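Batch manifest, entry 17 of 40.
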Amino acid sequence: MDDVTRRIGGRILVEREARGWSLSDLAEHSGVSRAMIHKVERGESSPTATLLGKLSGAFGLSISALIARAEPSPTTVVVRAEQETWTDIETGYVRRQIVSSPAGDMTEVEMPPGRQVDYPAAAYEFGIHVVWVLEGRLTFVAGTQSHTLDVGDCLRLGEPVPAAYRNDTAVPVRYLVTVLGSGTGRHRGTS
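Output type: structure tokens
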């Protein structure tokens, strides 16, 4: 496993222990098996985006905040070639953390053609989530509603529901996800 995967696993362990939770407690809160959590914490398995959504939701954090807490101390300027990325082994989608702070998170995501990433409602129980398409076309499914977003379109999420990011096209889609207030604990976004 790469260094980023090991740091994410270590951060999940730190977050779990900081709450005084056992593996069973985190499994119950997240819906992820104890065995899988154990493998991820030890850096033996790279988590999928869906799994990170479940774990971060259980902690009351955005995925961006969880990943950012696993990063080394930030510097003032980080050129693109030196910015850390994380790749979902299941879908091949790539997350590039731009900024994460108590005020919010900003993450660039590139999703390959024909792929989908599902998140539980718990991943959206904090902050105000805004998705802005930079290149391509993104289909965002929130509960029973489907939204097609083209370049320049943005979507502000409402009440937390299970959601899916989907690329139904033959070319990659690149989009920005901004979560305002993501580091301050659980509070729902409004629309």
